[in-house]
Amino acid sequence: MTTFLKSILGLTLIFLIDTSGLAQQDPQFTQYYFNPLSTNSAYAGTRDALSMNLVAREQWLGIDGRPRTQALSIHAPLKDTKLAWGLGFTSDQHGPVKSSYLSGDGAYSFRITETSELSLGLKASLHFFRAELSALETNNDISFSKDLSSQAIPNFGFSAYWYSKTHFIGLSAPRLIENGVISEVGTIEVPSEKRHLFLTAGKVFTLNHSLKFKPTLFMKYVGGAPLSTDISANLLIQERLWVGLFARLKDSAGLMVSYQVNDNIRIGYSYDKTISNLAGFNSGSHEILINYDLKLGKEKTLSPRYF
């Protein structure tokens, strides 16, 4: 197979399989329950701390041009108010296609019961897109002689998050505007951004004084693509070590582990094994997460939170 055909095959896999024709455009994460701000702005400030998350994901090892994603987020409540703020940056690359997202979040929370609160959030974001087609070896095909790129594409979203120390339910649409054609060169064009809807839920059950069980659910819907559903089951041992299994239905399954180093730092790792038609072409996906919480105020010990 020529380099040109390999490049075209790679682009086909990227645009048709990974994103369902660019219907599913948002990056995906396995450890979503420790990194919810990327999809749900109402999560901002809910940890009662200055909270920072860094996530790095390498997907489909063994495939040239495989997806690579890095995300950084920070959020905190505003002192003596029910308001909170958040900032996020995500970089996502699929072969020659690069997308970057810069976002700002605002949230307002109020008490629902003695042990739970409801937070409502707004997200404003900018999307930067670039496809470096000229870097492909295409035997001087003029269709690939120029790069595709876009100006900053603005968007906004809305979300809700009901939570306590032991449970949560979230509903969000981080980008409500379905922008038109993002970019085009000749007959090649990048279609519009699609509206994504996310539903998340989880609960912690105490089994005994040293063992807790946490099931979680993550569902994503976008027009023109199948419903995506993630389920996971984790055990918390001695309030320090999380170990668990997860499945992304009809796509992948794997394991995850995270460790609470101290009151401030948590590190996590997950491995996905592909079970879809791509299973024979890759050796799985890896994801690393680092979370740092800095307690605000005089009390330096954080209240137990499992999400």
Note down, in words, how this protein is organized.
With 307 residues, this protein is mainly β. The chain has a single domain (3-295), classed as monomeric porin ompg (Porin), CATH 2.40.160. 5% of the residues lie in helices and 52% in strands. It contains one helix and 18 strands. The chain has one helix at 3-18; strands at residues 49-58, 67-77, 83-94, 97-111, 117-131, 148-149, 153-163, 167-173, 183-185, 188-190, 196-203, 205-208, 211-222, 228-237, 241-248, 252-260, 265-274, 285-295. The strands form two sheets. A 14-stranded antiparallel beta barrel has the order 1-2-3-4-5-7-8-11-13-14-15-16-17-18. A two-stranded antiparallel ribbon has the order 9-10. A hairpin with a 2-residue loop joins strand 3 (83-94) and strand 4 (97-111). It starts with a helix and ends in a 12-residue tail after the last strand. Residues 1-24 have low confidence and may be disordered.
Number of strands: 18
Largest sheet: 14 strands, antiparallel, barrel
What top-tier CATH class fits best? Mainly Beta
Low-confidence runs:
1-24
Tally of DSSP helical segments: 1
Q: Average pLDDT, to the nearest integer?
A: 84
What is the percent of helical residues?
under 10%
Instruction: Provide the number of structural domains.
Output: 1
Question: What's the helix-strand series?
Answer: HEEEEEEEEEEEEEEEEEE
Radius of gyration, whole Å: 20 Å
* The CATH architecture: Beta Barrel
The CATH superfamily label reads monomeric porin ompg
Distance between the termini: 48 Å
Content-based structural category: mainly beta
What overall geometry do the principal axes of the alpha carbons give? globular
Sheet with the most strands: spatial strand order:
1-2-3-4-5-7-8-11-13-14-15-16-17-18
How much of the sequence lies in strands comes to over 45%
Remind me, CATH topology? Porin
Oligomer: single chain
